NmrA-like domain-containing protein
Amino acid sequence: MSKINVFFIGASGHIGAAVLQALHAAQPGLSVRALVRLQEDVDHLQLVYQGAVTSVLGSLEDVDIVAEEASKAQLVINCAPDFALPLDTLLPALASNPHPLKFFIQTSGAARIWPPPSGITPHPKIWSDLDDLPSFPTDTTHAQTDIAVSTFPGVNTAIVSPTFVVGRSPSVRHKHPIAFPDLLHVTRQQGQVFVVEEGRNLTTFVDTEELAGLYVLLAGDAVGCIQGKEVDGEIWGPRGYFFAGGWEVSMREFAEGYLLPVLEGNETAKRWLTNQEGKGVKELGLEEVVGSILGRFDGQGGEAWSSHIAEGFGTSMRVRGERGRKYLGWEPTGRVKLEEAVEAVVRYFEERENLK
């Protein structure tokens, strides 16, 4: 049987690098072509995978490259931000492949179900990816892209919706989770760990490596279908939406019980805690957090991003990833490699400040 062609987008990112590594370990026989923007990414993939992954030098703005690669693939995996994806080019190109079955795994995000931020009262709603799909909001972050993907004809689609990602990644430039530089930037400015308002908002977290495992299970199911297995409508299509969440705690508990001990155990990070001794968390208003994050951009824009991330620290992101468990056997343990995430951000700040 000929090799199955996979087009991989986002291979150099925090999530994407972890997914690619796990995919190669689980499915070494796939023919994977990965879109990367920089020559250093090409060199890195060659070093790590020794030719088992073929690099395609380009970006998502190179729509001709995206279309050509998608048209040759039977499976496309996107781990890049959904707002950057040229879906109107990619999906028709994938659908044009003459193979009778084509599959697309999309990365979305649980911001789709965020209620208005409040650190005073945890939101009571816990969203299920089994029972609540018909009532998902349609006017929030990720919503329109999710709908466009899940209803596209001629392609079997599945959407992975990560929660608050924490952990380590083999990525060269994005070892830290995306929100961690902002989380620790505010911590450094305040000299102690912080929460929005009282920090009672409940949030679901997921470990990077365990998140990657969900993508691998989906890819494995796609491979099985291409090889003759029946396509399951509970995995692919309009119902193929998978929350990726491992454990739930309040942001106050996360700051005091998880983050603070790790910071105190890191020789560099503990020096940031100039106001921490004998204190718990510092309660900040949402606008204070927005302003603090915005300062990291040195006047180079960032307003929308700063607001989005600050709201993430202050909202209740409560989900249950039941679909992955029921139909794919995905079982996150709830363990998280927080030490590695903090160390990665420490190195990020050190490298950034050494360049100034």
About this structure: The chain has a mean pLDDT of 94. The two ends are 54 Å apart (CA to CA). The longest strand covers residues 156-162. The domain at 5-167+205-245+318-333 is CATH 3.40.50.720 (Rossmann fold).
